[in-house]
Amino acid sequence: MATIKDVAREAGVSISTVSHALSGKRPISEPTRRRVLEAVERLGYRPNWNARSLASRSTRVLGLVVADISNPFYPTAARGVEDVAIQHDYSLIICSTDGDERREREYIDVLEARQVDGIVYMAGLAANRRLAELVARGGIPVVAADEQLRDLDLPGVFLMNERAGEMVADHLVALGHRRLGFIGGPRHLPTVGERLAGFVAGTASHGLPVADECVIYADNRAEGGQVAAAVLTALDRPPTAVFVANDMMALGVLEHCRSSGLAVPGDLSVVGVDDLPVARLVGLTTIHQPMYEIGATAARLLFEILESGGHPAPVRVQPELVVRSSTGPPLDRISDLEARAQLAVR
Amino acid sequence: MATIKDVAREAGVSISTVSHALSGKRPISEPTRRRVLEAVERLGYRPNWNARSLASRSTRVLGLVVADISNPFYPTAARGVEDVAIQHDYSLIICSTDGDERREREYIDVLEARQVDGIVYMAGLAANRRLAELVARGGIPVVAADEQLRDLDLPGVFLMNERAGEMVADHLVALGHRRLGFIGGPRHLPTVGERLAGFVAGTASHGLPVADECVIYADNRAEGGQVAAAVLTALDRPPTAVFVANDMMALGVLEHCRSSGLAVPGDLSVVGVDDLPVARLVGLTTIHQPMYEIGATAARLLFEILESGGHPAPVRVQPELVVRSSTGPPLDRISDLEARAQLAVR
DNA sequence: TTGAAAGCGTTACCAT
DNA sequence: ATGGTAACGCTTTCAA
């Protein structure tokens, strides 16, 4: 592997000239520059980033921690982060913690050891001290995206989760639902609590409660949704509509309905959050999250800190309800309407 | 940020003692070791990986290049690579080229500049010289996964694509289809060609051709499938069944059918390849690829090279047909059967 | 069992 | 416009 030294020798100039010819950090005569570039080409020289980082005390690398890269939400958000990073001539290390605390802890260490210039945290969990310590040390700026971290109050970009819950409540109540359910990921996640709070507030504003037994917490993924749906539909008085705190879980709910012969939306209306690409394919009514923008904004926030320090205020993004075919009037409501229509005819 | 020097001072020992206490590369007396560890803890010391790599000439980092991280195929494969990497105490840089040549070129440079110890290549494209040059220089071993690289003959792990095509052909012909179509990504991709070849060979063995106008190449993603399906179904004599070279495109085909009111499988049977998680949700018949295993095997291959050099033989994995609800007898065939059944009744 | 010192490939500063 | 050289933080000889 050719080094800067080899290039210098090949081009017949000093090391520092090569360095500057490549970085453009000081004027270089055109012929010299050309000779250097030719030597680079001939030797297939690629500057060693480790050495560069070591000498310059900046790695030009950002860390991105996501909860589960196989949730389609993250790749898009990651792309947002990455594009902004690339604009700033940075690159990205993506760490998928898979909801596993040990793994998450290790990744934090890796990112710190790698001396990344900053971290975008999109993993929710972080129950562990590791991140708190890192933040406390203050060496590496961290911004959160999508999910605020418990007890940490990082700068970041978040969906207006309460608003999202309200919108869903309005939609379902308007359709005629009276018995409503909620399915969410682990209860300690701020987003889950906020979405539920908004949902409850929304239904309450129409004079409707959300019964305790109709609120189920489960694993954050499709399987969790499936399990929760089974519990919910087995109730004596099952809800006619359910708000599911994210699309992956909502897909699980749909799967449960399919496999147990429940009609959607006839027997159960389902609303998710995220608007994953697959939501369109399966006709899932959901709250749209601007995933790419959330990632990009988080990255911009990070560069803002990197460049001018400080603790920028959190950015809150507007939810948007996308109505598809997984929501409709409840069955009893339909027969009700039909009955009235018939009365009218007479 | 505390350095090894700080730790040495704090613990009252030399730098090399700290280094060895941490790496365990030479015997250290218990009390000394403890003092060092305490100092590390107190200062929150994290070894600088750049410096370490520079000094030891090994980064313990692998590069993973994927075509499109938002294709659910990749995360799972990536997980396979990552798990094996972690077992070897390596970490992973994931690069998503997005099918963009410029981006791909840049990433290759990044990985080389970062001095990764090896690269798993899962992106197909690589029409560019960059990778060829890198391979030619021979500094960094590269293995391919899922898609062999044109003109490069890397060690790697691949699906038996011809076999997959044959299996699909057998399945569709057995259902009674006579007019068959094929939709694939860019024709220069080896997998696409191989899957088509197997498909054609399979139908031929039943005495059936695949008409030229029924073979469509398009963009590798869902949108491409949608476009291709539109072309195919607009034909004078459209096929009654189509083999789509990957699930994302197949989802696009399904989407086209839905939006244009075509029944699946009544009007068109659809088979994909990959068996993405979403395939189950939408009931897509498809060829199962062991994604995780493909990734893990590729990583193992890479470590094999790293440890003992050489050029291991390519690993080929068996395809498996998963029949779901997107395939069935063609409509005319159904009426045909019904007609016969009625005849039988009389 | 420990310490000193020579690199590793760059950048950045001080000269010229 | 160019060259020399001291860092950067660590690993790895070589000595003791």
- Unreliably modeled segments of chain A: none
Of all chain pairs, the largest interface belongs to: A-B, 42 and 42 residues
Percent in helix of chain A? 40-55%
Could you tell me the number of beta strands of chain A?
12
Name its key features.
15% strand, 434 Repressor (Amino-terminal Domain), 3 domains, Rossmann fold, DNA-binding, 14 helices, 346 residues, six-stranded parallel sheet, homodimer, alpha/beta, six-stranded mixed sheet
How would you describe this protein?
The structure is a homodimer of 346-residue chains. Helix content of chain A is 49%, strand content 15%. By secondary structure, chain A is of the alpha/beta class. The first copy, chain A, has three domains: 4-47, lambda repressor-like DNA-binding domains (434 Repressor (Amino-terminal Domain), Orthogonal Bundle), CATH 1.10.260; 58-157 and 291-317, Response regulator (Rossmann fold), CATH 3.40.50; 161-289 and 321-338, Rossmann fold, CATH 3.40.50. Chain A has a six-stranded parallel beta sheet, sandwiched between helices. A six-stranded mixed beta sheet of chain A has the order 7-6-8-9-10-12, with helices on both faces. In chain A, helix 2 crosses helix 3 (30-43), helix 8 (161-174) packs parallel to helix 9 (190-205) and helix 10 crosses helix 11 (247-259). Chain A is elongated and about 90 Å long. The mean pLDDT of chain A is 90. At the A-B interface, helix 4, helix 5, strand 2, helix 6 and helix 11 of A face helix 4, helix 5, strand 2, helix 6 and helix 11 of B. The structure holds a DNA duplex (16 and 16 nucleotides).
